[in-house]
Automatic annotation (TrEMBL), chain A:
<dbReference type="GO" id="GO:0022857">
    <property type="term" value="F:transmembrane transporter activity"/>
</dbReference>
<dbReference type="InterPro" id="IPR015854">
    <property type="entry name" value="ABC_transpr_LolD-like"/>
</dbReference>
<dbReference type="Pfam" id="PF00005">
    <property type="entry name" value="ABC_tran"/>
</dbReference>
<keyword id="KW-0472">Membrane</keyword>
<comment type="function">
    <text>Part of the ABC transporter FtsEX involved in cellular division.</text>
</comment>
<comment type="subunit">
    <text>Homodimer. Forms a membrane-associated complex with FtsX.</text>
</comment>
<dbReference type="GO" id="GO:0005524">
    <property type="term" value="F:ATP binding"/>
</dbReference>
<dbReference type="InterPro" id="IPR017871">
    <property type="entry name" value="ABC_transporter-like_CS"/>
</dbReference>
<dbReference type="InterPro" id="IPR027417">
    <property type="entry name" value="P-loop_NTPase"/>
</dbReference>
TrEMBL record, chain B:
<feature type="domain" description="ABC3 transporter permease C-terminal">
    <location>
        <begin position="192"/>
        <end position="311"/>
    </location>
</feature>
<feature type="transmembrane region" description="Helical">
    <location>
        <begin position="236"/>
        <end position="263"/>
    </location>
</feature>
<keyword id="KW-0472">Membrane</keyword>
<dbReference type="Pfam" id="PF02687">
    <property type="entry name" value="FtsX"/>
</dbReference>
<dbReference type="GO" id="GO:0051301">
    <property type="term" value="P:cell division"/>
</dbReference>
<dbReference type="InterPro" id="IPR003838">
    <property type="entry name" value="ABC3_permease_C"/>
</dbReference>
<keyword id="KW-0131">Cell cycle</keyword>
<keyword id="KW-1133">Transmembrane helix</keyword>
<keyword id="KW-0132">Cell division</keyword>
Amino acid sequence: MSITFDNVSKKYNNDYVALDEVSFVIKPNEFVSIVGPSGAGKTTLLRMLLAEERPTHGRVLLHDIDIHLLSGKDINFVRRKIGAVFQDFRLLPHKNVYENIAFAMEAAGRPDEEIESDVPHVLELVDLGSKIWNFPHELSGGEKQRVAIARAIVNQPDIIIADEPTGNLDPVNTYDIVQILKKINNLGTTVILTTHNKGVIDSIGRRVITIQDGRIVRDDMTGKYIL
Amino acid sequence: MEKIEFKTKLKRVIKAGFFNFWRSGYISFASILVMIITLSVIGGVIFIGAVLNITMAELRNKVDINVYFITTAPENDILSLKTKIETLPEVSSVEYINREQALDNFRLRHENDQITIQALEELGDNPLGAVLNIKAKEPSQYEGIANFLNEENILSSQGQKIIDKINYFENRTAIDKLSRIVNSVENLGLVTSLALVIVSIIITFNTVRLTIYISREEISVMQLVGASKNYVKGPFVATGILVGLISGLVTTILFFPICYWLGNTTQNFFIGLNVFDYYIGNFFQIAFIIIFSGVAIGAVSSFLAVRKYLKL
């Protein structure tokens, strides 16, 4: 599923411009990093893809569907096709690891047998099989992020959005998370990653879109972190 | 994507609601406490209503008009007057006490009063006339009945005046006051209990809202992974229903010792109503009202509270 940002602008309170006529296309199975200083508009961009925010102008297309013209019900379907991972993990605190992942599958209307077989499998994929019955508060940051990734990929989405997923992690965990994202990409999923971490970008060696003050200033196919 | 059955969805919602309730133990406990207070207020209102109703009915029963006849009044005339009064729409009952009964009653009342009894003996003849006790349906209707008796120039078949006196005009101020009190107590009782019920429901509502406010981040995460609105709402409503159900059960159980303890006090204080007997006698209705109120308040307040944090 290709992603198209077509001349997208976002203004807050009519004067603060978060995004200014941003246009780009992400082809299926790409691994794209979006970099830029804080407040450049990276998160706004991702939030629009999840239909959490509406553009002031322009269109955001998934394949050829403008997602901001969809009803709330259809947005739920789109969200099940997009797995999201955040800096602050956003796990459900009263559910254990198994239930956190199962919840995403339940939300997608998957039957019990599939949930029972897929959850342990996806946890093995992020190397967290031993913590299946733990609650989020019993996990380290790196472990929480792996649960979040497992939750994001369990419905076999077409796209993974990772908004600063390594922002709260130490270098070892950062490296692991990036490896997992690369693995997911190799299995055929589009990955969109935002980060501040120069080392992460340089180690991936894939397409990099650089945003500054709401505008795209660079778009390199095998980019480095340049600011 | 496979479609799953409604039954599976329902099972998941109930399970999630139960876990939600169980794992946020302290918060659930607090909601239950607040809910118990609300349900106790609702139950209390039922009891107060019953006590008021029964007490008022008793008081009303105690009010009557006594029509005293002269000693020579013929019984036939009195009985025909009784029939006439009974046809009045305001009258609920008329009791005839003949001269002998009146004397017996008098003797009984003055059993321990030797002087009065002696005086009565010395008179030889029965000095008491027959009496009609008239009860109205409403305290406010006594005046009309009294006026009817006064205006109708009631004479015997021989054209002689047979009514000695009607005690309404002596009791009038007392009766007026009582009927005013009866009305205001009923109105006040209604307004106060309504106000109490509303206030406690609002407090419960806000408690539930706070517990869900704590979960607002969770709600947004659930939506972010693509859960539909109803699937997010469901477990919270299930938790609310569970809180209501448990609170309702605890409240009905708590009412046993409370009513037992209050039973004798109320029996002495209010006219003849033992709240414990009343509770036992009407247990199923009262328990149903309390538990149903709990479930309804829990479900509705959870439903409304979650809705506030749902986007899309």
